[in-house]
Amino acid sequence: MLLMPKISRVLVAFLLMVLVSCGSAPINQSVNDPAESLNRSVHKINRGLDRIALRPASKVYQVVPKPIRAGVSNFASNLKTPGMIINDLIQFKLIDASSNSARFIVNTTAGLGGLFDPASNLGLPERYSDFGETLHVWGVREGPYVELPLFGPSTLRNTIGRMVDFASNPVRLLSETPEQQVYAGTQTLKAIDQRGRFSELVDSIMYDSEDSYAQARLLYLQQRREFLRKTDNKDNKEYIDPYNDVYDK
Predict the structure, then answer these.
(1) For a tag site, which of 69, 154, 158, 159 has the least CB within 10 Å?
(2) Is the separation of the CB atoms in 159 and 131 below 8 Å?
């Protein structure tokens, strides 16, 4: 019963955003971090949580056979695809929307609910999209850099986008409580798996660099801005953001 009001609020917010926006926002070249002191405090907490929880969990999880870990990650990614399709549509990227829709259908059916990824073998790779990208396409500027508790590096625009993606994902909204728990659980396991896969990179930044906060900020902004440049150039996007995967739960 609460589904329609939630969707209505998202649609109203989107329409208001469209009315005040015109064309893609410019991509920043500099670092805008007015709350650096606060962000560094959050980074310190995240670093501690990674050391005592996420990093050890990722090492333990690597003991799980790779096909099982891959199946869980595939399933988690498949559950996010409907949200990507929505973003493709409201960005008027109909080719991406069609490709992701076909991918979702193939992996949900032939891939046994998304445990396997036959769509990629059929030439249907994931074309990543999120509401942060949508806001960029509709002219909303990046805003200041933000380090989120648990979720890690972000910007104000991507933080808003993350909240909208979470609130509006059709799979999450249409599921009953047990399915919502499965959704949350698989996303968490995917994040743990990604932390293990990118362990050398993340460890080098978090524990080996002189200033882990500045390094993490630089890596995130470089990768995110490069992704948006590809968006503006209409390139197919196979986006890998280790920090988004590591902290995204």
Answers:
(1) 159
(2) no
Between CA 77 and CA 187 the distance in angstroms is 8
**pLDDT tens profile 186-224:** 889 999 999 999 999 999 999 999 999 999 999 999 999
Q: Distance between CA 84 and CA 74 in Å, rounded? A: 15
Listed residue (137, 135, 114) closest to 126, CA to CA: 114
Token pair belonging to 156: 């104000």
Encode pLDDT of 23-57 as tens digits: 788 898 899 999 999 999 999 999 999 999 999 99
CA-wise closest residue to 243 among 144, 119, 152, 145? 152
Q: Round to whole Å and give the CA distance between 233 and 27.
A: 13
* Angle (nearest 5°) at CA 71 between 70 and 75: 115
CA distance 22 to 230: 19
Q: Could you tell me the maximum CA-CA distance found in the chain, to the nearest angstrom?
A: 52
